[in-house]
Amino acid sequence: MNILMFGPNGSGKGTFGAILCGHFGIPQIETGMIFRDNISQGTELGKKAKDYIAQGALVPDDITIPMILSRLKMEDCKNGWLLDGFPRNITQAEAFWKALKKENIKLHYVIELVLDREIAKMRIMGRRLCAVDNNHPNNVNVEENKPVMKDGKIYCRVCGCDRLSARADDQDEAAIDKRHAIYYDTKTGTLAAIKLFKDRVKVIEVNTQPGVKEISAFLIKQLT
Fold first, then answer.
1. Per-residue model confidence as pLDDT tens digits over 64-107
2. For the chain, what is the domain count?
3. CATH number of the structural domain spanning residue 67
4. What is the side-by-side order of every strand in the sheet holding 28-30?
5. pTM (2 decimals)?
6. DSSP 142
7. 14 in a structural domain
8. By Cβ atoms counted within 10 A, which residue in 96, 100, 110, 126 is the most buried?
9. Residues with catalytic roles
10. What's the CA gap between 19 and 111, in Å, rounded?
11. Does a structural domain hold residue 143?
12. Residue 157 has pLDDT above 90, yes or no
C-alpha cells in the first residue's frame, strides 16, 4: 500500500504517519531525511543537493524526485510506503505523478489532513520538545497532549522530563504564515497539488481537530 500524506504544519502528519506505518508495517518516508541521507552518504544526487542547500536555494525537482524514487525502490518499501513532505506545489505534483507512472510505481491512496489555518498556527506555537525524546508529544495548546503541570513547572507527559523547550521557528509567526501560505494556496500551492491527485486516486480527507484515537481509527478503517 503506497500512500501520500498531506497536511499543513501543525496538523499531525508525524503523529498519524507513525501510527499508520506501525499498524500496516510500512516505512514512513520524509523528504528531509532523504536529503540528509544522500548528503551524508555522498551520493551524486546528494552532492548536487548539498550545493543548492549551501547557497540557501531550493533543490530542483530534477534532483529531488530521483532521490525520492530511489528511496521508494528500496527493499523496505516492497510492501508499501507512506511519504510526506512532497510534493509541495502543483508543478511538483505534476512532475512526481509523471515520474511514478514512468517507473510503474502505483499510488494507492492520498491522505489529506484538514485543519483550519489559525488552529494549525496555534498548534505549532504550542509544541514543546522533550530533551529526552523529541518525538514525545507535548503541546500546551492541545488538551490531550498537554505537558504535566506541577508546582508552576511543566514536565513531559510521557517520561516526566522537566526540560521542555520550544523551537525558535515554532514561535516565529511570520515564518509560520509563510509556510502556510504555500500550503493553503489553492491555485499553485499544496492544496492545488492535492486537487490534482483527487482526480486520479482515492483521497481520504479527515479533519484533525478531534482526538488522535478517533482519527487514527478512522484512517485505519479507510485503508483496510
1. 999 999 999 999 999 999 999 899 999 999 999 999 999 999 99
2. 1
3. 3.40.50.300
4. 28-30, 81-84, 2-6, 109-114, 202-207
5. 0.88
6. S
7. yes
8. 96
9. 13, 88, 127, 167, 179
10. 13
11. no
12. yes
